[in-house]
Amino acid sequence: MVYNGLKTMKKIGLLVLVCLFLASCGNNKEDEPQRCTATLKPSSTTIKGDLGDYFQVAEGAATIDDHNLITVKIKKIKEFDFDAEGYAPAGYSGTYVTGNFGFGITVKDKSGNVVKTVRADACGFSGCYSGDDLKTIWEEAVGEENIVRWSPGELQNKEGEFTFTISSFKKEVPQSTASSTSSDNDSKKEYSSAEIDQMLNEVDRLLGQLANLDEMSSAYDNKEEQIINLLSKISSANLTSAQEKRYFQLDDRFDDL
Fold first, then answer.
1. 114: which strand partners?
2. pLDDT number for residue 152
3. Which residues, 6 or more positions from 182, have their beta carbon under 8 angstroms from its beta carbon?
4. In the 8-state DSSP scheme, what is residue 62?
5. How buried is residue 151: exposed, middle or buried, by Cβ count under 10 Å (0-12/13-18/19+)?
6. C or N terminus of the chain, fewer CB within 10 Å?
7. In contact, 243 and 197? CB cutoff 8 Å
8. What single-letter DSSP state applies at residue 168?
9. Which of 165, 161, 158, 152 minimizes the C-alpha distance to 64?
10. Positive or negative CA dihedral for 80, 256, 188, 197?
11. What gap in Å lies between CA 59 and CA 49, rounded to an integer?
12. What is the pLDDT of residues 95-117, one digit of tens each?
């Protein structure tokens, strides 16, 4: 009888656990962050800033994609009348980077109050969602259009109608040459090739760890800071073409996390 009683109690306990589990599953939606449901329309198709002669906002409203990102289509309207070879998104640097460019966004509510703004020359987490978006835009042919994305930020959980404008940035990067002064050369931190490879490997390892961490945790912030510091050191070093290529690949992975 005692044995049967224990079995009954175990069954009851198991049933309670199952019920608690199901109830927990049923509440998961409440724990999920709400999607941005705001409606965004361009107040103008004209793009302000350095690239306004070459690009415009494609007709139509901005959308919120499946990843809850603000998505705007940018259309190329004119061929570059400058040497665009070697231009890279804002924040990129290296031997073969001859200039930087970027796009920003300003969102306003019905009353004209600025709700969200991202500078066109911002990079990393302060800029657009992905450097790959900017690279694709830069390689467009006249008449083509592709997307640039931004996180909703201050628009998160907001509803209603908003307007936006797009800004742009372009700046040539001075190139060092064989005749550079010693002060120019001193601006590059001297690391051995082996040290640079070691730092690249460490960034690769940290990115793998970062992908499995909660974005709101202190551990995530610590890893993120380590990666930023390492990427900064690497970008200030003299890189081989292979190291530079790997640096850009790692930087893109970092942007996409």
1. 108
2. 86
3. none
4. B
5. middle
6. N
7. yes
8. E
9. 152
10. negative
11. 19
12. 788 999 999 999 999 999 999 99
Q: What percent of the chain has pLDDT over 70?
A: 80
Q: In the prediction, which pLDDT does 34 show?
A: 60
What are the Cα distances from residue 220, in Å, to 56, 130, 152, 157, 238?
37, 19, 20, 24, 29
In this structure, which amino acid lies at residue 136? T
What are 146-203's pLDDT values in tens digits?
A: 999 998 888 887 888 999 999 999 999 876 533 343 344 444 557 888 889 989 999 9
Residues 92 and 87: their CA atoms lie apart, in Å, by 9
Residue 25 amino acid letter: C
Q: How far, CA to CA in Å, does 236 sit from each of 26, 79, 124, 231?
A: 51, 32, 17, 9
- Mean pLDDT across the stretch 36-59? 91
In the chain, alpha helices (H):
2-26, 28-31, 131-138, 182-186, 193-210, 218-235, 241-256
- Candidates 200, 169, 176, 188; CA nearest to 89 is 169
pTM for the predicted model, two decimal places: 0.58
